[in-house]
Design brief:
The protein has 457 residues and is α+β, with helices and mostly antiparallel strands. The chain folds into three domains: 87 residues, Nuclear Transport Factor 2, Chain: A (Roll), CATH 3.10.450; 146 residues, Nuclear Transport Factor 2, Chain: A; 111 residues, Glucose Permease (Domain IIA), CATH 2.70.70.10. The chain has nine helices and 21 strands. The strands form three sheets. Strands 11, 12, 13, 14, 15, 16, 17, 18, 19 and 20 form a ten-stranded antiparallel beta sheet that branches. Strands 10-9-8-7-6-21 form a six-stranded antiparallel beta sheet, sandwiched between helices. A hairpin with a 2-residue loop joins strand 7 and strand 8. It is flat.
């Protein structure tokens, strides 16, 4: 009967009170069975021996007591309550937005609304490990906003409005650049030698692209040739964004020196100021077509009638019109987006990339190297489109610019008004690159400050 009453009482009490009752009963039970001290006649030696034993037992008891107290404290501490209105998800390899939303119980209609908002960015089309999603739900547990964390310097927030559609806002932090000097010798394979010096695959591909018309890396380089590279890495505070760029390269081969230095216009020149680039075509077509929609960051979308940035230029091309690469590069994306349609992205020299949307057919593959004037696709009317056309984007330093008016590489020397600044920059960079160093040496703080300033001059 007492047991039944006790069980009923426990069910009526909060969990923390239940645990306190169990703790009190346990302590009472320990006191009841605790042995009582006995009165015994002991001599001095026995007393000293007993005192030592009791001291040892006391120390062990304190250790046990501390352990029990720690366990009781952990047991009594309430478990953290999960916020039902906030969800986070770390992107893993092979993830897609539709699959992630399905795990959280969101229908495909929500995915489409988010993808529609992302049409001009295409940030959600290629999710990568290291990216992170933070979902904020409303009182009905429907998606109210979502933040895509790309890296420490770039986050994108998608916010639902009263109509149920989403808009986006980019949160950008340019951070700061820290420069590193990488040195090594070229023996045998240039690729393996460059990897030993600390260069990445992207760095090596960039160097190959820069010297492709002046140097045959398989035949012309003599064993023991010196490789000197200044590379800058981007940080926001102490956190790396993963972005990097080549600032300068020197290859000392026999009695020849091959050099390339990045200027403030985004182009590479040799130490004399002569361009290392081929001319960059202004239009990715065989002839000029009428512009049906110009570059406009504040454009009103023709279908949704909402303000939606137009990060490119639309040419009124019939379906099947050949699309040409405006410069040499590597195909980095080939995707089929529900709103952008079939599209291609190409990484060119330096920090320039181009995109081509609403295509009808691909003529290249991802990872393929292409040359200026090569056919890469046929224009079309795929995705969300008002009619056949080519949407063409030009990005410099990961920012969209107007391809019709942008200062693009035209294979000309360094402009006269910046020759002196460029010469000073080359001299300073060369001095840093010639300093004795290990295979992979980071410049000291003073040098980092100078080198970081070089890219902004």
């Amino acid at each position: 009967m007492i047991l039944n009453y006790y069980q009923q009482l426990r069910q009526q009490l909060p969990p923390i009170h239940q645990r306190m009752i169990v703790l009190c009963f346990s302590l009472l039970a320990i006191l009841l069975v605790w042995p009582q001290p006995r009165s015994t006649n002991l001599n001095l030696s026995s007393l000293l021996f007993a005192e030592g034993v009791m001291l040892s037992h006391r120390q062990n008891y304190l250790l046990i007591e501390d352990g029990w107290l720690t366990r009781w404290q952990q047991w009594l501490q309430p478990e953290p309550v999960e916020n039902p209105y906030l969800k986070t998800y770390a992107i893993t390899s092979g993830d897609s937005l539709s699959r992630i939303f399905q795990q959280f119980g969101f229908g495909y209609s929500v995915v489409q609304r988010i993808m529609a908002a992302d049409e001009s960015l295409l940030a959600l089309d290629v999710l990568q490990p290291g990216n992170r999603l933070t979902l904020q739900l409303d009182e009905q547990l429907q998606l109210h906003s979502m933040e895509l964390y790309i890296h420490a310097g770039k986050r994108i927030v998608y916010l639902r409005d009263e109509s149920g559609d989403f808009s986006y806002q980019e949160l950008l932090d340019d951070g700061h650049w820290q420069s590193t000097i990488l040195q090594g010798e070229i023996n045998g394979s240039f690729y393996l030698s460059a990897k030993q010096a600390g260069l990445t695959d992207f760095d090596i591909a960039s160097i190959n692209q820069l010297f492709r018309e002046r140097l045959n890396f398989q035949r012309d380089i003599q064993a023991g040739a010196a490789l000197q590279v200044m590379r800058s890495n981007n940080f926001v505070g102490e956190t790396s964004t993963g972005l990097s760029r080549i600032e300068g390269v020197r290859i000392l081969n026999r009695r020849q020196t091959f050099s390339a230095f990045l200027h403030s216009d985004g182009q590479f020149y040799d130490e004399k100021g002569d361009s290392l680039e081929r001319a960059f075509s202004r239009y990715p077509l065989q002839r000029r077509f009428e512009v049906s929609s110009a570059f406009n960051p504040r454009r009103l979308h023709p279908i949704t009638q909402r303000v939606s940035p137009h990060n490119g230029t639309d040419f009124r091309t019939p379906t099947g019109t050949p699309v040409l690469a405006p410069a040499d590069g590597v195909v980095t994306r080939i995707e089929n987006h529900p709103f952008a349609g079939k599209y291609i992205e190409i990484q060119h020299f330096g920090s320039i990339k181009t995109r081509y949307l609403h295509l009808d057919r691909f003529l290249v593959k991802r990872g393929q190297r292409i040359t200026r004037g090569q056919r890469i696709a046929l224009s079309g009317n795929t995705g969300r489109s008002t009619g056949p056309h080519l949407h063409y984007e030009l990005h410099i330093n990961n920012r969209p610019v107007n391809p019709i008016t942008a200062n693009i590489p035209l294979a000309r020397p360094v402009p006269d008004d910046s020759k002196t600044a460029f010469a000073d920059k080359v001299k300073l960079m060369t001095e840093h690159m010639q300093q004795p160093s290990t295979v992979s040496a980071v410049t000291n703080p003073a040098q980092l400050k100078v080198a970081g300033a070089l890219s902004r001059n």
